[in-house]
Give the backbone structure.
Amino acid sequence: MNVCLRRLFLITLMFAVPSTAALAQGAQANRPDPGHIPFTLPKNIDWKETGPGEYQAKLFGDSNKPGIYGVLIKWMPGHFSHPHSHSQQRYIYVVSGTWWVSDSSTYDPSKTYPLPAGTFAMDNVKAIHWDGAKPETGPAILELVGIGPVVTTHVGSDK
């Protein structure tokens, strides 16, 4: 990953995992000027359903347009994507929960691998994969950063 993209990814993590300690200490009087440090509190993140059991919240940019973008993805328990690939490299940080992944072209949730919170991963260009959250481990929230535009190609008859 190039150094600039890695730094930008790490900076966006600070916004994806806000500190509740500062809020608990009544730090409202120390609130930074949004013109200097724009932020969105967790309660104000705009989650949109993008498929059965999958939600996304746009942080910045647009995956359908040229340039860098960042989104949060929330997989609800028991929901998975199906085998697919992407036209661009994508960088993922598991913010919370356990993210279950597979590099198989065959959809079978029993053959996924768990990636716990704190894990960093990548979707390599044109590499088949699929992912989601198992019922027994609860929801998973990911931060995904990439450069658009991105084309997603579904594989096989498991669309």
DSSP finds two helices and twelve strands in the chain.
